[in-house]
Amino acid sequence: MSKVVKKLSEVRFLSYFRFFYSYLGSAVFIALGLSMLVALLDGIGLTMFLPLLHAVDGGTGEADGENMGSMRIVLDGMNELGLSPTLVTVLLVLLFFFFMKGIAKFALDYYRTILNQRFANIMRLGNMKLLAGLDYSEFSKAESGKIQNTFSGEIVRINTAYRSYFQMLQYLIMTGVYVALAYVANPKFAVIVAVGGLLSNLAFSRIYRITKEASRRVTKEMNNFQGFLIESVSSFKFLKATDLITRYKEKIDQSIVSVEKQQRTIGVMNGIANSIREPLVMVVVVAAILIQVTVFQESLGLIILSLLFFYRGLTSLGTMQNSYNQFLGVSGSIENMEAFTEEMKHFQEDPGTVPFSGFKKKIEVKNLNYGYDDVPVLKDMSFVINKYETIGIVGESGAGKTTLVNLLCGLLPPPTATILVDGIDLRELNKHDFRRQVGYVTQESQVFTDTVANNVSFFENPSEETELKIQQALKLAHAAEFVAMLPEGLNTQIGINGVNLSGGQRQRISIARELYREVDILILDEATSALDSQSEKLIQENIDSLAGTVTMIVIAHRLSTISKADKIVFLRADHTYEIGTFESLQKRSANFRQMVSLQTV
Ligand SMILES: Nc1ncnc2c1ncn2[C@@H]1O[C@H](COP(=O)(O)OP(=O)(O)OP(=O)(O)O)[C@@H](O)[C@H]1O
């Protein structure tokens, strides 16, 4: 089945089908099958009108099938079933088919609603999986607005696209069924109307093109808009305090206006498509009747049934055209989503296969070289971190401290086997296992819009035991005191990005979270930079007290933070480095001495 779908999808219009099929599988065929059933039942019901007319017209109360052309097969069928085509039977059969159609239509609508929801969820779940598995270095190049928009607004738009697309397919099938029935009823008339219908379709091609282009632009502008929005929320304080928010708002306003403009174009196109549909249908029908009557001299009676089918067929065609135009109005989102998921799939991280059950002995860095886009940052670096040691990483801004730490925690994979954890190439280790043992307090404290307790336990189920652990972690991070003073203690909401807390308090909460996790390796990136000297001193003491129970890698600008470290990796801007204790580096490195002399240690 999927091979057939692939082959068909080489046609652009059908390539969208492959997109939906890739998420919903053969369920889409069930929906299409139901559409066909609805059209067939409706068509058969309609054929009953002719024997009905005939029965009434003949005054016999019984239809004999004369003038029904090939459709007399329906009457033959009734006869075979032992149903004599009296007025009452024909009426009952007509009712029967329309009831059956009602049931099939209900099943179709219900199934489509379920599929619609399933479709949105499959997309959301799939995208979340791809995002979680994304390689960190690729993530750092991504646009946050695009991710945000693709995950929220675009999914809504694609859901609309899905509805319109399948509505279009449903009406396409219906049109096909009606045209086929019309052809069986009156072939000549059918051919004239079909040609007319196809010609009328040409009028729509320009509308389709304009709508599609506008849809693409909406997606692009929405990506920009979301990006601006995220940045204006995260940088609100700065933008507000400097009134740069006024200028930033102008950028956001422009993208809002541009989206509106494109959506207006889509609206106008949909309006035109809607309003010219009916007149066009009528032009085709009137022309076909005139040709039938004047050129082929057929009686009107002969074309009534065919006309009935055609009127329905052409109405279906019109609805199909409108659905298609509505679909095109949001189809830009499908292209965006396809490109986005392809990109994310391409940049998935290798999860690693070797299980990791805990850090046992040492991390060895052996001749590590690393750079970005061929620009070297770390050159031929070698050192060892033994279990429970504290390693300080210092150096000028841009010397590569964060890069080194990202390599050590497996966020950036080194090109060759140059980082070994307990003798195993870090790239081979199961990343989930390994990272569960890594705590990371980043430069910008990571806090989440929830309570203090949830920020520390990271949403672990509340229990007495959990609370006790939270309190211990807060104490170690020197945060217990200020948390106790908060209006609702542990259950206080900390606000968006922790706005209700001071910078130092946010940092202490972040430290408490990593201590709560009881990891083997704790990375602190400038972790005490936002603290006042009293708090820093206290945390420093707590960190020192952790020495010997956890392996710590500490990036520090303030040398006091790492004066007691077992080893210090001192990085220079020219990619050279030195390793030693604070004292030994002070003795042998002029650069290090200079750095120390600039600070009061
Ligand atoms: N994703 C990236 N792509 C390209 N270059 C990068 C990337 N990340 C960092 N760099 C570059 O690598 C060098 C080292 O950066 P890194 O962030 O590791 O330095 P750092 O010592 O931690 O600096 P700071 O103390 O200012 O935080 C810098 O020149 C930086 O511009």
Question: How is this structure best described in words?
Answer:
By secondary structure, the protein is α/β, with parallel strands linked by helices. Among the domains are: 174-346, ABC transporter transmembrane region fold (Up-down Bundle); 362-597, Rossmann fold (3-Layer(aba) Sandwich). It is built from 23 helices and ten strands. It has helices spanning 2-8, 12-24, 27-47, 49-58, 72-80, 87-132, 136-139, 144-151, 153-185, 187-202, 205-234, 236-241, 244-295, 300-346, 401-408, 431-436, 452-457, 464-476, 480-485, 503-516, 533-546, 582-588, 590-597; strands at 362-372, 375-386, 390-395, 419-421, 424-425, 438-441, 521-525, 551-555, 567-571, 577-580. The strands form two sheets. Strands 6-7-8-3-9-10 form a six-stranded mixed beta sheet, with helices on both faces. Strands 2-1-4-5 form a four-stranded antiparallel beta sheet, covered by helices on one side. Strand 9 (567-571) and strand 10 form a beta hairpin. Helix 8 (144-151) packs across helix 11. The longest helix has 52 residues, at 244-295. The site of adenosine-5'-triphosphate (ATP) has 11 residues, from helix 15.
Q: Name the shape in a single word.
A: elongated
Number-wise, the strands total 10
Determine the CATH superfamily of the domain at 362-597.
Answer: P-loop containing nucleotide triphosphate hydrolases
User: N- to C-terminal separation?
Assistant: 72 Å
Class of secondary structure makeup: alpha/beta
The helix content is 55-70%
Number of helices: 23
CATH class category label of the domain at 362-597: Alpha Beta
Radius of gyration: 36 Å
Unreliable segments of 5+ consecutive residues: 59-63
> Which small compounds were modeled alongside the protein?
adenosine-5'-triphosphate
What strand order characterises the main sheet?
Answer: 6-7-8-3-9-10
Report the sheet-strand fraction: 5-15%
Please tell me the overall pLDDT: 81
CATH topology of the domain at 362-597: Rossmann fold
Please name the CATH architecture of the domain at 362-597.
3-Layer(aba) Sandwich
Major beta sheet summary: 6 strands, mixed
